[in-house]
Every structure is written in C-alpha cells, then in structure tokens.
Specification:
2 domains; six-stranded parallel beta sheet; metal-binding; transport; iron; electron transport
Length: about 500
C-alpha cells in the first residue's frame, strides 16, 4: 500500500502519456456530468450529505461498542467473525480459510479492502488463484496491471485497448466475433466468467456497509457479478474494514441515496445485496467475516484526519480533481488514488510511510473534492493538516526552504529592507525581461529549479506599487495605474 515512487516523480511519467490523458478526461467528465444531473434532482441533497457525515461521525465515536454489537449479531445469525490487526494477519486468516475448503481457486467481488492488504498476491503465493469477476477488475487482472480508479479500475484503457487485452489473455475467447464494441466485449467476459461462477466453491467479497444492529453486510454493484459470488459458492469470506459500520438498518437509507448518485450517476444501484449470517439451504453455508484494522485505529486518533474514515468509496472526488484527471491513479502509487487517497493512504501507513508522505502535496487545494464528497470530508483541510504534520516532523533539521523563509521574514519586517530588495530584484530581472519578453522564466538553477520543474517563474513587475504611488502627484491628476489604466491623482 506504500507508493514505490514519490508522487512528483510518478506524475511526471504519467503526464507524458497522451492516450492516458485523453482516456481519463473523457471518462471523468462523462461520470461527472451524470452525477451533476441526478444530484440536481434531489431537493434535500445538502441535508442528505450532512446526515451521512453525522452518521459516520457517530460510528467513529462509538466504534468499539458498535464492533462488538456487530460481532454478536453476526455470530448469532451463523457467521464466524475474525479480527485482523494488519494486512499480514488478514491474509493469513483468509488463506487458511480457503485452504480448509480444499479449493485452489476463488471468485472475488470487487473489493478495495482486499486490494489494500494485497490478498490476491498472498493467495497466489499459497497456490490459490483469485479470479476477479467485476468487468473492470477482470480487465486489469488480465493485463497484469493495477487499478487506477476506485469505481472504474480500468478507466485508463479505451475499448480498443481492452479488445487487445481480451484477445491476448482471455482463455477460449472467439477472436472471429471479438470486436471493440462494448456489447461484444461484455459478452466475451460473460462467457468467460459464467464457467467460473458455476464451478466456484469459495467466494471472497468486501462490503460497502456493515450493519451493527443486525450483523448484516451490504454490497452495491452495477453488473450482477457480485450477486453471483454471494449466492452460488458454498463458502463466503468477507474482508471488511472496521470503519464500514452503520449503527442501524435504517441508516442504510441515507447511503443508498448518496452512494449511487455520487459514484455512477445513477438514482439507485442496479444490484444491492444484503446477507446476514447463514440461511439453511439458501446461499453459502459457511460465512466468515474478517474485520480489518490495518491503520484505521491510528487514523481515528487524529482529530482532524479521522474524517477520512467517513469515506464510502464513491470516487466522486477523483472525477472532479484536476490533478487526477491529468495523471491518473497509478501516479499515486497506492490502492486509494485521487484526493481521498492523498489523505487516507499516508494516515493508514503511518509516519514512516515512505513515498506516501508526498501524497498530501498531490493537490491544488481547489476544494472541488469537498464540494463533491457525499459525506462532507473536508479533504483540503486534511491535506493542509498532513502537510503541516510533515513539516513539524522535520522541524529542526537543515532546510533550504526554511532558510529562505527566514530570510524573507527578516527582509519584510523592515520597510526599508523590503523596498531595497524590490529595487534589487527589479534591476536584476531587467536582462531576463528582455530575453523572455516579460513572459517569465522556464528554468532556474538549484535550489529554485524545484519551482520551475513544473511551472514558470514570474518576473518582478517593471514598476512596484510603491513607486507608482509615490509618482502619482508628479504625473498629474490623471496618472496611469500599474496595469496601464487611467487613475485620478493628486488632491481633489
């Protein structure tokens, strides 16, 4: 879950892929526009957002109590509840449960939690094949790739690229009928997966929500593959983050309005599956629930950062983010990309998060993510908070930036020093103004090269406001302003 490269390095590489940028722009704008239309139909959308935030905050305040309530209710209904402190414990638990069935292949419902802990890789090491059944996840798996979006993992591919992946990697595909038309691609996936569903003895899922009151798990999806996994196999193993709880079944009403509109731009999910323990003669007869912490308790301890645990994985913040739209999910190097990943991943992986420490800087702080978030996570606030935490952790160490800021502070504390600095900057920039025709500098030497690596450096103004103001009376009652417009001058 820790990014292999710092975000600036990875983003620079992704920016060079023009096909990726075209795919991302087309897909994110399509989803964004659909969302705006269906959200506009709801007169009390603001109240729904506030209700969703309040319910999730209540969960975070009462998390230990609600977890115990959920365990008791699920156990009474016939499920077996397991607890995992981290990814290693969760992977070991699931692997042993699958081994106990004698199966060497499992079918999977799309699950961010299992991606977070690296479950597919852990199962593969144990000789167990995990088959992704969500269409986008299947595309990514066949391509030996990783997801780049929470909702649409294959958003970085277009349909011609998907056709090539199916032709190369999908067993038994009929190349004579395989075109890049969506219907043909969906039919090829359907035929491939049908055999997997009918032969599977074990399924693995996550959960969008877990109801403490009844011990019920909930999965919402668009394709029906989840329903197949949740009903056909003999054994069902659900890996669930501890923050997915809702106190009561009635609370689900709020989120079944918020989630589909925010994620797919639909009024309701095509498939909403709920299951509570074991029902004799109907569905899986062995149900296991693995409750995973994996950094969530540490995140909960931060009064500002804990709001990230409200997240319902709708991906609305990704679809409106100008940074994500240009670099895609792989630049973040984490299971959770985009604005929510920029605050969730570094918190869950802790202070020694390696390259994840660069993620809070993967933002313009424009605030579009907060406006789109259905549970009102103030992502810009948390980004600034995490940046400050990173600075505080390095406080006392030598830093070129800190030295520069202290120098600027000393200069600006005295108006004479400040005026002299402005005059020196203006004189020093005169040759550059001639060379660049006043358009700014594309490249500066170290340490200022960090600025011009991704933006131009503006030149100082040809005339400062102070100089212009001081010369108003000398220029008469109608003096030209700093921007060239006529301004009244002198006394009336």
């Amino acid at each position: 879950m820790v990014a292999p490269l710092p975000f600036p390095t990875a983003a620079r590489r992704e920016l060079a892929d023009t096909q990726l940028r075209a795919n991302l722009r087309r897909a994110t704008h399509t989803i964004r526009d659909k969302r705006l239309r269906v959200v506009g139909e709801v007169p009390d959308w603001a109240e729904l957002r506030a209700a969703g935030a309040a319910i999730k905050d209540d969960v975070l305040v009462r998390l230990p109590e609600l977890l115990e309530q959920f365990e008791a209710a699920a156990t009474a209904a016939g499920a077996t509840v397991h607890w995992a402190r981290d990814a290693e414990e969760a992977n070991t638990l699931v692997t042993e449960l699958v081994r106990g069935t004698g199966s060497t292949e499992v079918v999977k419902v799309k699950s961010m939690a299992t991606q977070e802990i690296g479950l597919n890789e852990a199962l593969a090491e144990a000789g167990i094949a995990a088959v992704e059944t969500d269409l986008a996840e299947l595309i990514v798996q066949l391509a030996d790739d990783t997801p780049s979006h929470i909702l649409v993992p294959a958003i970085h591919y277009n349909r011609q690229q998907i056709r090539e992946i199916f032709a190369r990697r999908m067993p038994g595909v009929d190349l004579a009928t395989l075109t890049d038309e969506p219907a043909a691609l969906a039919e090829a996936a359907r035929r491939h997966l049908r055999a997997k569903f009918l032969g599977a003895r074990v399924a693995i899922s996550g959960a969008n929500f877990a109801i403490a009151e009844t011990g019920t798990l909930v999965v919402v999806e668009s394709e029906g593959n989840g329903r197949m996994c949740l009903t056909l196999p003999e054994t069902l193993i659900s890996v669930v983050g501890v923050e997915k709880l809702l106190p009561t079944f009635r609370d689900l009403e709020v989120f079944l309005q918020l989630l589909p509109r925010s994620s797919t731009g639909e009024r309701m999910n095509p498939y909403t599956s709920t299951w509570t323990g074991v029902t004799p003669g109907d569905g899986p007869q062995a149900v296991h629930i693995v409750l995973v912490d994996n950094g969530r308790t540490a995140t909960l301890a931060d009064p500002v950062g804990r709001q990230a645990l409200r997240c319902i994985r709708c991906s609305a913040c990704l679809n409106v983010c100008p940074v994500y739209e240009r670099v895609g999910g792989h630049a973040y190097g984490s299971v959770y990309p985009g604005p929510i990943g920029a605050i969730l991943s570094p918190q869950m992986t802790g202070p020694d998060a390696g390259a994840n420490r660069s993620l809070p800087y993967a933002s313009t702080l424009c605030g579009a993510c907060f406006d789109a978030c259905p549970v009102r996570i103030d992502i810009p606030e948390v980004l600034v908070h995490l940046r400050q935490r990173g600075v505080d952790a390095r406080r006392g160490r030598p830093s070129a930036e800190r030295t520069a800021m202290r120098t600027m502070s000393w200069v600006m504390r005295d108006r004479r020093r400040y005026a002299a600095a402005l005059r020196a900057a203006r004189r020093g920039s005169a040759p550059l103004r001639l060379v660049t025709r006043g358009r700014g500098v594309r490249r500066l030497p170290w340490p200022l090269s960090a600025w011009t690596a991704s933006r131009d450096a503006p030149l100082p103004a040809a005339e400062t406001f102070r100089d212009w103001w001081a010369g108003r009376d000398r220029r008469g009652t109608r003096a030209a302003g700093p921007n060239g417009t006529a301004e009244p001058g002198g006394q009336p």
